[in-house]
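When time allows, look over one protein, given below as sequence and tokens. The question is which stretches look regular and which look disordered:
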Amino acid sequence: MHLLSFVGRNGQSGYGAQLDNQRIAHLSAVLGNRYPDLKSLLDSGLADAQAALATAPVLSRHEVHLLPVIPNPNKIICVGLNYETHRKETGRPVEQHPSIFTRFAASQIADGDPIIRPHVSTQLDYEGELALVIGRPGRYIPAERALEHVAGYACYNDGSIRDWQRHSHQFTPGKNFVGTGAFGPALVTRDEVPNIEAQTLTTRLNGEIMQQAKISDMIFSIGEIIAYVSSFTPLEAGDVIATGTPGGVGAKREPQVWMKPGDIVEVEITQVGLLRNPIVDELA
């Protein structure tokens, strides 16, 4: 299934399953009393979602405005420097453990929403990534069992305000400006992509390829990331893990490339989806 979170014309939030490019099965119309949001539905193991497809009313894609796949995750964990091409372009040393930072849910936007360049900086950079969405809670999860805890995958653009990221050794300020974390368009359930590490991640800016890598090129694998993260914090249904970006970021190009109003940035992962966002300036 391709699962979406959205706001309908009545202003109420809901969730559903994408049937095709134009139609969405409105699962929350059937299941909303038991599972108020997609996060709680994931905790059920999705059997109820599959059963509800038979009776769910069908919405037109034009009747809804997408939300970030999981609008209200308890945690967003981000992995830095997790592709060798990106580690080398930054000049950072080889590490024995993943580099971890966090992003706030309020900084996220959906597919189609504008990424906002804040008025305090022009150094807005792209970072195309694979996002994991946790479905089965766990703690101290062995790497070899990690995929059993993944509900599915989505595209992520971990938009970064580079000068604020470099104010200190902590990445948090540059990674949490409002409207910079694009997440979507849908959660593609794990059974739809049994060979996730064979897929290719591509980031385009105004149609030009800026980043491209196989998911298998990650330094720390999906299993290793989940094992490490679940050791210091329990993972819960709906938690999001952004697994890192390949080389080719704008900050390390000659000359540097910063996203600006009027640009279009796309993150595409084969068999997962295409996330597309315009760039706008923050309103005064």
Observations:
- The chain has two domains: 2-66, 76-281.
- Residues 222-232 form the longest helix (11 residues).
